[in-house]
Amino acid sequence: MAKAPVLVGGFELPSGPRLPRVGSVDAVALEERAATLAKRSIKRESKVQALELAIRMMDLTTLEGQDTPGKVAAICSKAMRPDPVDVSVPPVAAVCVYPSLVGIAKERLAGSGVKVASVATAFPSGQSPIDIKVAETRAVVEFGADEVDMVIDRGAFLSGRYARVFDEIVRVKDACGEAHLKVILETGELGTYDNVRRASLIAIAAGADFIKTSTGKISPAATLPVTLCMMEVVRDVHAETGHIVGIKPAGGIRASKQAIQYLVTLYETLGAEWMTPDLFRFGASSLLNDVLMQLRKEKTGRYQSGDYFTID
Amino acid sequence: MAQVEKRVSNLPATFEWEYAPAPEARDIVQIREQYGLFIGGEEVEPRTKEWFPSISPATEEPLFEVALAGEEDVALAVDTARNAFENGWSELAPSERAKYLFRVARLIQERSRELAVAESLDGGKPIRESRDVDIPLAAAHFFYYAGWADKLEYAFPNRTPRPLGVAAQIIPWNFPLLMLSWKIAPALACGNTVVLKPAETTPLTAMIFADICRQAELPPGVVNLVTGDGTTGAHLVRNDGIDKLAFTGSTEVGKLIMRELAGRNVKLTLELGGKAANVVFDDAALDQAVEGIVNGIYFNQGHVCCAGSRLLVQESIYEPLLEKLKRRLSTLRVGDPLDKNTDVGAINSKAQLEKIRELVASGEEEGAEIYQPKCDLPERGYWFVPTLFTNVAQSYRIAQEEIFGPVLSVLTFRTPDEAVEKANNTPYGLSAGVWTEKGSRILWMAQRLRAGVVWANTYNRFDPTSPFGGYRESGFGREGGRHGLEPYLRFDE
Q1: Taking CA atoms, which of A10, A93, B328, B481 is between 20 and 30 Å from B222?
Q2: Is the ipTM of this complex over 0.85?
Q3: B19–A53 C-beta distance less than 8 A
Q4: Which domains does chain A have, with CATH numbers?
Q5: pTM of the predicted protein model
Q6: Exposure of A183 by Cβ count < 10 A (0-12 exposed, 13-18 middle, 19+ buried)?
C-alpha cells in the first residue's frame, strides 16, 4: 500500500489493522456506561478535590450578542478570584469570549495566569469561506488569545466532505501559531455517536490540541455519553500513537453534580493523567457559582444563600 | 503498510483521587436474631428444633439464625399449601389473585431500599446491583404476572388453562429475591400455591418477603417458605404432595432431582448451569463490547448461571480488545458490598470461594496465562480478584466447567463458522452473546447458537416479558414472559 502523506501536526491514519480505525459506537451500551458512571457517589474529601479541580478546569464563558467590555471585565475579575471571601479557591483556567472582546480580556487578565480563549471561524455556524476563517483566527491570535475555539464545518461533514473538514482544521491550526486549538464538533448537530467518533478522529488527525463538544448554541450541547464517546477516541489515539489530546465538554453543565460526573467519567476512562486543566476543560458560565456554593457547603457544613455569591 | 511512529508520552503528574467511602446505611434493615419457617401465614418453629447461622460473606460476621426444616416441617408446609389451594385460592376470581400480586409488587417497591441492603448484607453482592437490578426486577416480575392472572385464556387460545396445585420451588443463592419472584409470581398468577426453599446461604430477603406476604394480606398457606440446606430440598422433592417442581441451581443437583421425579406425576422445570460463549466479531463497537464482556462475567461476581464465561474473540481484534479489557479490569472496584461505588462484591460463601480457587489453579496448571489487576482486598470475608485467562485451549477445565466466579476464559476464532462451532462445543446451552455491527450476522448466529438466550450487543439483560431457560444440560422449561406461565398450568382439552 502506498505510504500516506505526512500530515501537518497530527498523525497518519494507519492502514494496518490496529487502532485507531474509525470503528463504531454502540449507542445503547455507551449511554448505559455513562449512566453507570453517573451513579458514582463522590463524598467528602474526594468531593472537595473534584470541586476544586472543576474550578481549575473551567473556561468561564460569555458568548452573547450583548457582551460588552464591562461584562467581560466582570467575568475576568470572577475568573481570577472566584470566591472573594475564600482565597483558597483557585482561579479558573481561562475566559472564553468573542474575538472583538479578546483585547479587553487580555488586558484584565494580564499576569494572572488565567488564559484568554476566543471562538473563531465564523462561530457558531462555521458557514463562511475558509479564507475568512483563517483571517479571523490570525486576528484573534494577534489580539492576544492563548487559545482558539474553532468550529468544524458541519455542512461539509454531514455531506460527506470529510477531506474539506480536515483541510480547514489544518489551515486554522497553522494560523493559530503558538495558540492552542480546540476544535468544536457541535455534536448536537452530528446526529450519531458514529459521526462523533469520526469527527473526533478527523479533528485529532488534523492537529487539534483539544476536541470540544459544543458551541452552546445548539441543544443538546454537552452530554455525558457524547463526552465519553470522545474520551474513548482520545484513549484509542493515545494507546496507538502516544499522541495526547484534551477534551472540553461545553454547554449545559450547570450543576456541581454534573461536573463531578464528568470528572468520574474522565478518571475511569482516561485515568489520573488526564485530570488536569491541560487536558480537560469545562466550557460553562453558570456552573462556577454552583461549584462555589457546594465547596463552601463542604467546608462549612452549611448551604448559603445564592445572594452570597456574585452574579457577574 | 504505513508505520505509525509511537510518540513518547509526556503525561503530567497523576492526580491522586481516592473515592471516599460511600456506604449505604444498613440500619434500614431490622435483622432479628432468629427466623422461623413461614407456614400457613405464620412463623413457626421447626419440628427439628435445629437452627443454623447465616453470615455476611463480606465480613464473616453472623447475621442471624434461621430454621432448618426437616421432613416433618416440609410435609406440614406442603399440606398447608394443599389446604390453601383447595379451600379458596384455586377458586378465587383470577382478578382477585391479580390484586394480591399487584399489592406484593408495590410492597417490594416500597421496601426496595430495605430489601436491597438485606440482599447485599446476606449475599455479598454490590448494593449498586441489588438496588438497580435485583429488587426492581423482582417487583417487575410481580407486576408482569399480576397482569396475566385474569388473562390466561388469552395466553393459550382455544385451550382451558387450570392450575396444577402445589408448586415446590427451590432457588439458588445468586439472586435470592429475584429468583423467588421468578418462581412465586407466575405460580400464584396461575392459581397455584407454593412451598419455596430459599438457598442455604441467603434466606434474609425471603424472610422479609414473608412479612410482605402478611402485609399484602395474602391468604395463609398460599406462600410457604421452608429454610434449610440440601437435605431440606431433598425432603421437598421427595414429598408426594407436590404437583410441580421448579428448580434453579447446579446441573449436578438437577440430575438428581430428575432421577427422583422419574415416574412421578410431577411437572418439572430445571434451570441449571451454563458456560456461555460471548462472541466478539472484528466489526463490533469495541469499547462497548468491553463493557458487555465485563458485565457478562464480573456482574454479581460471576455468580450468574448465564454468565459470559467464555470469551470468543475474532483473532484480528484480539490484541486491541485484550488491551482494552485489561485496562477496564483495573478500574473495577472490589470491596464492601454496601459501598455505592463497589463494582464487584464478596464471593457468596467459603465453599464457593474454594471451588473458584481450585478451578483457577487448574487453569494455571494446564498452561493458561492468568491476568489479575492490582487489587486491595479486605482482610476478612470471601474475596476473589476479577481474573482473566488467555491462551486457553478448548480442552482446559476452565473452558469446559462452570466456575461460577469472576473468572473469564479467553479463546479466539477466525471465521463465523468456527465461532459457532466453538460456542456450541459444551454440554450446556443456557445463553450466548454476539457482538457485531452487522444485523444479518446477528440473525445468522442466533439461528445456529444452541442457547436458550442469545444477546446481541448486550449481555445479562433481563426483563419479565422475555422467556429465559436452557438447552441440554442447562435444563428445560422457560421462566418469564407468556412462556413462563405454561409450566404452572395444566390444560383441559
Answers
A1: B481
A2: yes
A3: no
A4: 27-302 (3.20.20.70)
A5: 0.93
A6: buried
